[in-house]
Amino acid sequence: MKYLLIIFSVFSCYSVFGQVVKPDKDDNLFSFVFMTDIHLQPEKNAIQGFQKAIDAANELHPDFVITGGDNIMDAFGQTWERSDSLYNLFNSMMANFNSPVYTTIGNHDLFGIYEKSGISPSHLEYGKEMYEKRLAPRYYSFDYMGWVFIILDGVGITEDRRYKGYVDEEQMDWLREELRRIGETSPIVISIHIPLLSVEAQIALGPTEAFKDNSIVNNANEIRGVLKGHNVKIVLQGHTHFLEDIYYEGIHYVTGGAVSGAVWNGKRFEMEEGFLLIHVSENQQFTWEYIDFGWEVP
Ligand SMILES: [Zn+2]
Question: How many separate domains does the chain show?
């Protein structure tokens, strides 16, 4: 099988890392792309970089694309004009995908949270309002070929106008209801920007280091408790620009690298700019591969 994988990577235009086993073509139910941390901006050739990622995704003919948050760079500490222009830019580029795109909210997508932005919390598009008005609800779900995709908002706004990884009570109530609807057997994929489980801190900061409250979902264990007894297959995560696959209690927590690498400054921890292509097979199994779409900082 390893030999086959090498053949595959040679004959495709893309390098393949962290691959498990590619399912037989006949067995392939559908495939989708998970693109996280795009950090779209007019600077740093990010428009050309994102377009290259879109072109690569289109060539792979996924059934749909999910973004993992931090779609733009950024609205957090910026003026309304800058934030507005970034959302317009992102929306115009979304039209270049050949397949439907489902977005996830990230911290950088929130408008005017940092005090330095000069934006008042009473602004009509403050916080998550701008994202919800321009892109999508902050949490929602959709069904596809017997699988259920749950998009969560893992960004909590603190009283002192910062953010932390958190899934609020309103969503938790909705999630419990949603899981009741889905039942115990339907396979589930979750997308959330800030990870529910990760080892990034142990690599980036050191083996004995803990996560800061803005790098991991603070109530992740509560969420794991709610998910118990349901057929959750994958939790797709972003935020840390890190590529990993942690298997715990039947769930793969996969952090999907970053389309922007180190925010369009090149590689991060030797990880290329890239995105995940996920193959789903008829027997409820899946595999993923990291697609290096060939971007180099000019
Ligand atoms: Zn983030």
Answer: 1
